[in-house]
Amino acid sequence: MPSKRPPKVWLGDDGILRIDYGQHPKIDLDAIQSAYAQHIAISTEPRPIMVLGEGAVTATPEAEAFSNTAEVRAVTTAVALVTGASVIGRLLAQLFLSYRHPKYPCKIFESQAAAVEWLKQYQQGDRGSR
Q: Domain spanning 8-122: which CATH class is it, in words?
């Protein structure tokens, strides 16, 4: 059953914003708007983002469209989709990237450590919150 809890959003000591959607989430417009509102409350500086979700992660077309709006792009330098070892999660993420072309760099990773290494190149200036 898809997760119904709102996403958890926090800024790591490394300056990378994390968004955790939980177990088998279906990311809808409410969820992604909640993540965006939490992001803006933490920092309005453009930042790299690590998206976490366990198992089968899906998103509605409305959520996908919102992720490419000018307001989201203004605070997003790159996105790492961390699927963990889930084969289905990785396939769904690859499918997403095949059909939806985010207007910022976006890549799939199995581990948070690998995602951090890649995201570091997209950091800009200040690492603190506003």
A: alpha beta
